[in-house]
Amino acid sequence: MPALRDYHILISHAWKYNDQYETVKGWLENAPDFRCTDYSVPITNPLDVTSKRELAEKLDNRIMLCSCVIILSGMYEAYSEWMNFEMETAKKYDKPIIGVKPWGQERIPLDVQANADVMVGWNSASVVQAVRDYALR
After folding, report:
1. pTM of the predicted model, to two decimals?
2. How far is Cα 110 from Cα 116, in angstroms, rounded to an integer?
3. Which long-range contacts (CB under 8 A, 24 or more apart) does 100-103 make?
4. Which pLDDT value is given to residue 78?
């Protein structure tokens, strides 16, 4: 059996909604025949920064290394400043953006729709398949 590809992923999220991040991370970590490295900034491992500029630089560096960026669109309204930054940075580096619609949410923010290469539903199979289909080699 050939070695599994290691997808480098950043999941854009807000610490206030850490449970949604953990759910998507778990889907990716537990998917069969799938391996990924998480470049996200979880609440359990914050970046050591002292300014917004420094945070932006460190996020930029992480996104530059990714093969795709996942946007959890349900958090967009409250955290659009950083999510916009992450989407703009992904576009700057031609990184695919996978938008994920939270369970039961019918309205998706226009900025997420406009920037996402694909929008998928809130389930593990859809997210994993989108990474396989859209992540850069």
Report:
1. 0.92
2. 10
3. 100/24, 100/70, 100/71, 100/72, 100/73, 100/126, 100/127, 101/73, 101/74, 102/20, 102/72, 102/73, 102/74
4. 54
